[in-house]
Design brief:
single chain, 164 residues, alpha+beta, Glutaredoxin, 4-stranded mixed beta sheet, two-stranded antiparallel ribbon, 4 helices, 18% strand, globular, oxidoreductase, peroxidase, peroxidase activity, GPX_CS, GPX_AS
Length: 164
């Protein structure tokens, strides 16, 4: 299986197949609006603007599973992201990313890219998963890994061997 085998519902309520993102490098992130890592939205948006025209997408999945740091509804989340960080990459509805009710996509991501010491559970907001153009999970990044630290890995998957 690949990430393309899953569906998710956008903040606007539209169910879409992730196969819509086939042949693109993806960074899938569980997000929250009231977290110490929330300013990473800025860096994520910068990555998106820098690489989007080269077949790169960021998919944001808000989650309220970590200290209730995403209390709003879909409309609140969309407004917060746009007003505070200018986010225009795809954002999906509030999602369980761990536990018995975790979205199947996140079960797949954590199986394919376990965390430290082989842990499969997502430990906090802003855990990131890098996916290649074939839908394979390449790497998992801890919440404290800022978006700029992922840039070189993105360039490699996009076929850019030069440093800029």
């Amino acid at each position: 299986m690949s990430v393309y085998d899953y569906h998710a519902r956008t903040l606007q309520g539209k169910e879409i197949p992730l196969s819509d993102y086939q042949d693109q490098v993806l960074l899938i992130v569980n997000t929250a609006s009231k977290c110490g890592f929330t300013p990473q939205y800025r860096g994520l948006q910068e990555l998106y603007e820098k690489f989007h025209d080269r077949h790169f997408e960021i998919l944001g999945f808000p989650s309220n599973q970590f200290a209730h740091q995403e209390p709003g509804d879909n409309e609140d989340i969309a407004e917060f992201c746009q007003v505070n960080y200018g986010v225009n990459f795809p954002m999906f509805e509030k999602t369980d990313v761990k536990g018995d009710h975790a979205h199947p996509l996140f079960k797949h991501l954590t199986e394919e890219a376990p965390g430290v010491l082989g842990s499969k559970a997502i430990k906090w907001n802003f855990t990131k998963f890098l996916v290649d153009k074939q839908g394979r999970v390449i790497k998992r990044y801890a919440p404290q890994t800022t978006p700029d630290k992922i840039e070189e890995d993105i360039k490699k998957l996009l076929g850019d061997s030069s440093s800029r």
